[in-house]
Amino acid sequence: MKTNRNGGSSRVRAVAVAVLLLALAACASPFKADVSRFQAQLPPPAGQTFVVVPQDAAMNGSIEFGYYARYVEQAMIAQGYQLATNPEQSTLVVSFDYGVDDGRERIRSWGPAMSPYWGPWGYRGGWAPYGYGPWGYGWYDPWFDGGVESYTVYTSGISMNIDRRADGQRLFEGQAQAVSTSNKLQYLVPNLVQAMFTGFPGNSGETVRITIAPEKK
C-alpha cells in the first residue's frame, strides 16, 4: 500500500495552523467584570472638582496607589469632572481600593462524553476550551495529558466611593469584581476601572456584567 507523504504533511500543517489560530483567539479573550453601583443624588460633573484618596490610610503616599489612582482620575475627567488643583478644596473626595486574592486551584476533566470537540466519529481535532460559564479563559489540549487540566483562578476587585467634602455625605458606592487566570494588578486594575465607569454612574442597586474588548497587540 502506498503512503501519501505529502498529503499527511499537509494535514499536519493544517492542524498546526488551526491550533495556532485557536491559541491566539484564547489570548484575546475579553475581560468580564460584575459591577455593582449605588448612588444618592450624585451631582452633575459641571463645576465639580475631585481628589482620589486611598480607602486604606496605610496607602497614603504610596507610589503604587498613585499609579492606579491615575486610572480613576482619567476616568473621572472623561466624565466631565475636574481634578482639583488643591486637594483640600475639592468638592468631591473619591476613595479607592483594589486587590487580588491568592487564587484557588481548579481541575477540569474532559472526555468523549463531555467535550464539545468529540463527536460520533471520535476526536475532531484542535484545542478545546477548558473554561466555560461566565469566564472562559485558557485552552486545554487533550493530546498531552489524557483529559485532565489543573489551573489557578484569581478573584480581583476594586471599590470606589464618592463623598461630598462639605458635609461628608456619601454620594456613590461601587464595586467591580472579576475572576480570571491572571493575578497581575497592572492588567486587572485598569480593566476593572474601565468596567466601573462603563455606563457610569449606572442604575442604583443594579449589578451588571461588563465586557471589555481585549487589548490590541
Offer a concise description of the structure.
The protein has 217 residues and is α+β, with helices and mostly antiparallel strands. Helices cover 25% and strands 33% of the residues.
Low-confidence stretches: 1-6, 12-27, 113-145
Number of helices: 4
Largest sheet: 8 strands, mixed
CATH topology of the domain at 31-101 and 155-212: Double Stranded RNA Binding Domain
| CATH architecture grouping of the domain at 31-101 and 155-212 | 2-Layer Sandwich
SS-based structural class?
A: alpha+beta
Beta-strand segment tally: 10
Structure description:
The protein is α+β, with helices and mostly antiparallel strands. It has a domain at 31-101 and 155-212: Double Stranded RNA Binding Domain, CATH 3.30.160. It has helices at residues 5-27, 63-78, 142-145, 185-196, and strands at residues 31-39, 49-54, 82-83, 92-100, 104-109, 118-119, 122-123, 148-164, 170-180, 206-212. Strands 1, 2, 3, 4, 5, 8, 9 and 10 form an eight-stranded mixed sheet that branches. A two-stranded antiparallel ribbon has the order 6-7. A hairpin with a 2-residue loop joins strand 6 and strand 7 (122-123). Helix 2 (63-78) runs parallel beside helix 4 (185-196). The chain is elongated, with a radius of gyration of 23 Å. Mean pLDDT is 77; it is low at 1-6, 12-27 and 113-145.
